[in-house]
Specification:
The chain is built from 3 helices and 36 strands. It is mainly beta. A hairpin with a 2-residue loop joins strand 34 and strand 35.
């Protein structure tokens, strides 16, 4: 194992040397500089914590608007598809971001458009797109009709497109590709038809498959014992529709997977249904499973476990540990040892009733009384979850894990009682929801502070914390807010045209720090006045 890690590290160093001067040096992915934001989460860890502190708790009230960019996609765009859910990547003074079927490059200092590419789609569900990946001088993004697109970074010229799933089977592809070494990691989504999920590594030169991890086992494989039969396994699920994280020292990928199918009907798939609703650790060069942890065994409530698996090194029980934390859609905060997947903490961060407690592995025990029923079952949280895709943040200076949260209830109905039910086989009707921002002590899972937003509605926002002792979040009233990360005190806010629709990001160019956030189809950039 140790030799394999050394060889993997040596290969990565060689690759870095080969690509120096050719766009994005992979070394910047290992330790990003202040003038870059080279991955969806800013770096491989998923912490969404910036070391920048020119904008700080003392001067945040002086922030002013630097520029605004409207991502005009033309007539006919769907409301969901026209929200900027991608986090812009920054390289060489240029921001790169997406909407479904569209990619842009804009000047990070002025917001001026440099190029715009529109993909001629064959269809698919245009629910959102999380952004691009960059390798050398090439851009990569996925489309709703399930193509991986590669563009020349400086011009937007198409290099190639390869199909990564079949849109006729109602797959749709939303993740931002994650670049690890010479692997372009791409995931897929889909719920309407019973199709299996997977994660693929693709060659950046050609787009060809290097390896594939299937989120359902085949008969005789590890995990097959958690399904009742081969037919249930083929119904699929376990979609990989959000980017994961990566530990270069261990050469391990950490990825969350989605719900099993049929979504609300569990009678034909009795068992835990691995590897759905799981956090999996995979060898980055082979895709082989190293360990797993399942936040929602035998899920029947659409509680995808795709929320960012945040990795960091910190003390636990008086000893330094390699840790992984997730605020899960099902309402639990989990802390794992990322070398083994061993559970250290499992604590709910909202009141919930779908679980009866925790088993010996630290995994929740589903409450059979809260399964969807033909006459309805009141469940907390709703299918949208206690949190969802908007990214969390971890601040190593406060030791707090921040998560955008929704208190919520839904009535879950089972509409197909057949053993061979398909698709959703049910539905849920929301009863009530309210948004909050929570700060969780990673050592205990206890809530250190909570800010409940006024009014009903489960609006969620991506988060960013910084060394300037700031935590940025949106709210349901279309504000961007700067909080004190230690106690939740509001230090600054500004009203936007619509609600924050991505995770804020920050960078420094020419000695000035910028804060950039998406809201609807607009990108807003804020900075401090020049001295």
């Amino acid at each position: 194992m140790k030799l394999n890690r050394i060889l993997a590290a040596s290969s990565f160093v060689a690759l870095c040397a080969a690509l120096v001067g050719q766009g994005l040096d992979p070394a910047k992915l290992l330790k990003p500089t202040p003038d870059t934001w080279p991955t969806y989460n800013g770096d491989y860890s998923g912490k969404r914590f910036s070391s920048l502190k020119q904008i700080n708790a003392r001067n945040v009230r002086e922030l002013s608007l630097a520029w605004v960019f409207r991502a005009d996609t033309g007539p006919g765009a769907s409301p969901f598809g026209n929200q900027i859910k991608s986090t812009p990547l920054l390289l060489d003074g240029v921001l790169y971001f997406t909407l479904p079927d569209h990619a842009w490059a804009i000047d990070a200092r002025t917001g001026r458009e440099l190029w715009h590419v529109k993909w001629q789609t064959k269809g698919g569900i245009h629910i959102g797109n999380r952004g691009v990946g960059i390798y050398g001088n090439w851009i990569f993004f996925e489309t709703p009709d399930d193509y991986l697109i590669s563009l020349e970074k400086n011009t937007g010229k198409l290099r190639w497109s390869v199909e990564i799933a079949d849109v006729k089977q109602e797959y749709f592809s939303t993740p931002a590709p994650l670049i690890v070494g010479n692997h372009v990691l791409v995931g897929v989504g889909g719920d309407s038809l019973d199709v299996p999920g997977y994660l693929e590594a693709r060659d950046p030169e050609t787009g060809q498959v290097q390896w594939r991890f299937n989120t359902e086992p085949k008969p005789g494989e590890r995990g097959a014992e958690t399904w009742p039969n081969a037919d249930a396994m083929t119904h699929g699920g376990g979609m990989t529709w959000m980017p994961g994280t990566y530990d270069p020292q261990m050469n391990l990928l950490f990825w969350g997977t989605g719900n099993p199918n049929p979504v609300h009907a569990g009678q034909g798939r009795k068992g835990d249904d691995l590897w759905t609703c799981s956090i999996v650790a995979l060898n980055a060069d082979t895709g082989k499973l190293v360990w797993w942890f399942q936040p929602s065994p035998h899920d029947t409530h659409d509680y995808d476990a795709v929320q960012t698996p945040v990795i960091f090194d910190a003390e636990f029980d008086g000893k330094p540990r390699k840790l992984l934390a997730q605020g899960s859609r099902n309402g639990y905060f989990f802390l794992l040892d990322r070398t083994s997947g061993k559970n250290l903490v499992s604590e709910p961060f909202i009141p919930l009733n779908w679980s009866k407690g925790i088993d010996s592995r630290g995994e929740p025990i589903p409450n059979a009384a809260k399964e969807p029923k033909t006459d309805g079952t009141l469940v907390s949280p709703a299918s949208g979850g206690a949190t969802n895709w908007p990214p969390p943040s971890f601040d190593p200076e406060t030791g707090l894990f921040y998560v955008s949260t929704s208190y919520s209830y839904s009535v879950f109905y089972l509409t197909d009682t057949d053993e061979n039910a398909e698709g959703y086989a049910g539905r849920d009707a929301g009863v009530w929801s309210q948004s909050a921002l929570k700060a969780i002590d990673y050592r205990t899972g206890k809530i250190r502070w909570s800010h409940v937003f006024p009014g009903d509605g489960g609006s969620l926002s991506g988060l960013l914390s910084t060394a300037g002792k700031l935590l940025f979040s949106g709210d349901p009233s279309h504000n961007l807010i700067g909080f004190d990360p230690a106690d939740g005190k509001i230090l600054w806010h500004v009203g936007l045209a619509s609600g924050v629709s991505n995770g804020p990001m920050t960078y420094e160019l020419d000695g000035r720090q910028y804060l950039v956030v998406g809201a609807g189809d607009m990108l807003y950039a804020f900075t401090l006045p020049r001295a």
